[in-house]
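fwd from M.: "can u put these together and see what the complex looks like"

so here's what she sent:
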Amino acid sequence: MDLKIALAQINFTVGDVSGNAEKIIKAIADAKNEHADIILFPELALCGYPPLDLVLENEFVAENRIKINKIAEKTKDIVAIVGYVRKHDGKYWNAVAIIQDGKIIDHVHKINLPTYDVFDELRYFSYVNNPLPVNVVIKRRSYKLGVEICEDLWDDRYETKVTRELVKKGAEIILNASASPFRVSKIKERIAIIREKVNESNVPFVYTNLIGGQDELIFDGNSFALDNEGKFAAYMPASKEAIGYCEFKDGKAVNVLSDPQPNIIEDLRAALLLGIKDYFYKSGFKDAVIGLSGGIDSALVAALATDALGADHVYGFAMPSKFSSDHSLKDAEQLAKNLGIHFDTISVEPMYESFLSSLEKQFAGTSFGLAEENLQARVRGTILMSLANKKNALVLTTGNKTEIALGYCTLYGDMCGALGPISDLNKLDVYGLSRYINEQYGYDAIPQNTIDKMPSAELAEDQYDPFDYDIVSPLVDDLLINKPIEELIEETKDPELVHRIMHMIRITEYKRWQAAPGLRVTSKAFGQGRKMPLVNHFK
Amino acid sequence: MDLKIALAQINFTVGDVSGNAEKIIKAIADAKNEHADIILFPELALCGYPPLDLVLENEFVAENRIKINKIAEKTKDIVAIVGYVRKHDGKYWNAVAIIQDGKIIDHVHKINLPTYDVFDELRYFSYVNNPLPVNVVIKRRSYKLGVEICEDLWDDRYETKVTRELVKKGAEIILNASASPFRVSKIKERIAIIREKVNESNVPFVYTNLIGGQDELIFDGNSFALDNEGKFAAYMPASKEAIGYCEFKDGKAVNVLSDPQPNIIEDLRAALLLGIKDYFYKSGFKDAVIGLSGGIDSALVAALATDALGADHVYGFAMPSKFSSDHSLKDAEQLAKNLGIHFDTISVEPMYESFLSSLEKQFAGTSFGLAEENLQARVRGTILMSLANKKNALVLTTGNKTEIALGYCTLYGDMCGALGPISDLNKLDVYGLSRYINEQYGYDAIPQNTIDKMPSAELAEDQYDPFDYDIVSPLVDDLLINKPIEELIEETKDPELVHRIMHMIRITEYKRWQAAPGLRVTSKAFGQGRKMPLVNHFK
């Protein structure tokens, strides 16, 4: 088993079949220049992942067929393994084409089709439980390649153990084309499971993962290869586009790399930056508008946006009301200065008063409450959207996972925006990442006072967040992954709290139905991966 | 085959396992009083349909188990067929329990699990392709019952033809427990397919369908039974809760009913009223707030809300700006008077001017455009939300399918609201239903001028909707069901229009991501049944 393999960790764009095809053709040429025998692309490289309901459009599937044939024409003297949506036998397949010498010589179809969380591949694709190695001749030697697609590796919940079957049927190497979305520490799980497969099979394993942001999902790359002894033959950067290479002689890495030491928090930061950047650039926007409250959430979002888009493309606005404390405005201003972003202050008072006066008749005889609190948030949301419309920019929402879960946010108010960069980070993660960013900068870009002060929405007098985040943030996370209630009661010793928090999550589903997409960085984010009924009387 | 069967067309609530169990126990008692031999409940009667990610909660599944056993205890001298979520063999099943004499004597699991459009049952449930009749003894005679669940009937796209298999294996009658959501003319399809099954099998077919609104979905009931000659043995009302009965002697209906003549537009109206009513009442609200523009969409929504909730529970607000025509205010006022709903006028001008003045510095040197148009809509949205918050009411959005598709609506503006009653009706449907409602009322409740005038958003001078709805509305509908582009070009003879409309749908996906839930009345509505990427470069 002597092969040199290219791992094409490329940032494709969903739907851009032509553009992706060009990138694929160029990568094939590059790999040929480097004398690679095989180039392995990520899952559904040609159309981007996940294509969702585009798969139901005839024109889209036809375009996949046309372009895969075009790629085949341009492929000589190398084996290219290219993912695309294939219509065959009247059904749709999550496929890879095995291309050699200008021809598609074989196809492999994904067998284990994930249909949980953000994945719904059984909505689109068929499968057959019959893994077979691909026969190719490279440099006059014939090889059996064990080609599989993403979830085929993660066979725990499936009947068919694809990797094992492939090896049993003679595969000398496993080549996995993946689109595995980022989440914190996922890289460790990937290394662990692939090492396990190598230990079991004693064949090398090459894993190319997609890179790039797609709506809520961030594909972090981190492609790698292990040789038949489980040693690293390649390890590619997190959240960066690149083509990597690995070379095997008798199944052993020609260059053995030392085991990588993933930096969990740096990987998180890099993933968020990639997610922001790609959402903006792939949507045709360069500039972000952010409401700066002086609090930690908006400060972190501003810092991330600055790193993702550049300080000159970030517009921060403080929008104080009579309930805002002095330090709010000061902290917001200091943050903007530290980051070097645009900054202005627009008081919400005139609009707020104008609404109250127009609503006087309708509000007569009622006391200050939810309507008035929300109104302030909605005036702010409207200001930010007006500014974004005028500047052709996108508003970033600043809610974190804990407060979004508890409904501690206003629809059409602070929930206004195109993307929620930290909507899957709980309040403790927000503090942790903020401190890390300050460390990286080497000074307190996010003002220390912002980190130290008590969190408050400042929508009413003397209002502070009524939660002990040290307890509530992890509790919310656990409830969202359906950790059994009795275990949580055991852990917190506070059944009333557990039930109250669960209840708050339940009764605020309607807000999240209308929330902006948010970047997913855990195994259970809000958004497409969580489908809760709005009308729901389960207690 | 001599049996009397009760069809329990009951309005269950998702998650209300206890309450649903009580309703089931009461229905069983009623059916026993009527000397029914069997009572057939809808799909997942015990937990409500669709339970979505509640299925992933241990406590929910446990509650299903506890309550199905409780129901069993209370069931004597009748066979009850009750749907629930069952955990068995470590897997989850969309099941019915066959209950007799205080015991669960058998289970049937759904085989064809729909996973398309709004359905995602493969996300939750397992299946085995082995349909088997249930053996029961009733009045000392043993019967083979062909019990199946909803999609098992609609076997076109599935390998397993459940009905056929059941009859082949001796089933003397088919009992189908369904949760089939309403869409226009769906009742005709149901009758046609069941008649086809009866013609093929020569056994009677009893079909109990769920009734009630659940978020976007409306279950319309319309349960019925055909005898072994395809004659109607029962036919139950659309969109009303009831228990119906059918009696067979030697497989023939004891009382043959004449074939029903569904009233398509009345069924649509009834379904929408049910959808509104259940969304409000099941969420604990009684009152609706609606912005009345004087246009046809808001007029129709107000009329529907009035019929669903009662005139005293509907609050209409006209919110004119300087761009509003005189007739807008007059028509809105007239409508409110005709319907007898609350009405008030709140000019948006003071708030609009207040925003412009606070944004003066930022807007300096720019001309009137999108930001200013959206701003008016957002001031209106904020007014309505403030009123709803104060009155503990829900805002109804008034967008129709055509304008939502084209993005002719403002996020956080006219898109503010809890529910979109007409978001799946295209502009022509809106006119049709409005005329029908006036006919039913016997006078022009919706003012004739509202029906006759040219549609306009009135967000700028002399602005009229730039679409010929006679062409564009059906074109949009066809594009949403993925009718091939070439056919649409053939039909319209206007390739530029087809591509332009398609492009408008594509670039406005981000708005619909954050849209309120809307009542689904066609085979392809926006919302959970349509999953398009936001970043999408497919042309």
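replying to her w this: Chain A has a mean pLDDT of 96.
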